[in-house]
Amino acid sequence: MASVGPSAASTQPALPSGPAVFKTIPYAFILPEILCGTWVWILVAATSVSLPLQQGWVMYVSLTSCLISLLLLLSYLLGFHRNSENWKVLDSLYHGATAILYMSAAVLQANATISSEFGPNAPLNYQLNSAASFFAFLTTFLYILHAFSIYYQ
Fold it and tell me: For the chain, how far is it from start to end, CA to CA, in angstroms?
């Protein structure tokens, strides 16, 4: 029977720092999350926000998530995590909660898209809202992938 020494014990992979963040799953999802979330905010703002209650929530979620994700990306790039396991928990909780918030925003944006089909400036607003809905659901999917892929490292 072979003995299990310290080298054979299960070790957790190190958290990436610097440019390795862009090559490591799930951390490589952060930049696409930021870019797609930015598109959601830009496209909703371009519609002149005809449904302020619904689209205001979409803009709040997309802008806040974009800024927090940018701070998280910078903290990984600069190595603030110091390879602490608590960062994995923080990352997973943040991305899970943000996925839920983004799902609510994506559904509201889809409803705003349906409502804008026959409103003033219908063709342009409908197209912008459709694109915003697409990017909102894509961003939701990226946040879900990020949250769950931490467990499969």
Answer: 29
In 62-105, where do the E strands start and end?
none
With 70 as the cut, is the pLDDT of residue 87 above it?
yes
CA-CA distance, 121 to 90, in Å (whole number)?
43
Q: CB neighbours (10 Å) of residue 42? A: 15
Q: Yes or no: say if 68 and 59 are a contact pair by the CB < 8 Å rule.
A: no
Query: pTM value?
Result: 0.82
- At residue 10, the pLDDT reads 46
Instruction: State the pLDDT at residue 5.
Output: 47
**What is the Cα–Cα distance from 126 to 12, expressed in whole angstroms?**
48
Question: What distance lies between CA 101 and its chain's CA centroid?
Answer: 10
The two three-digit tokens of residue 103, written as one number: 């799902």
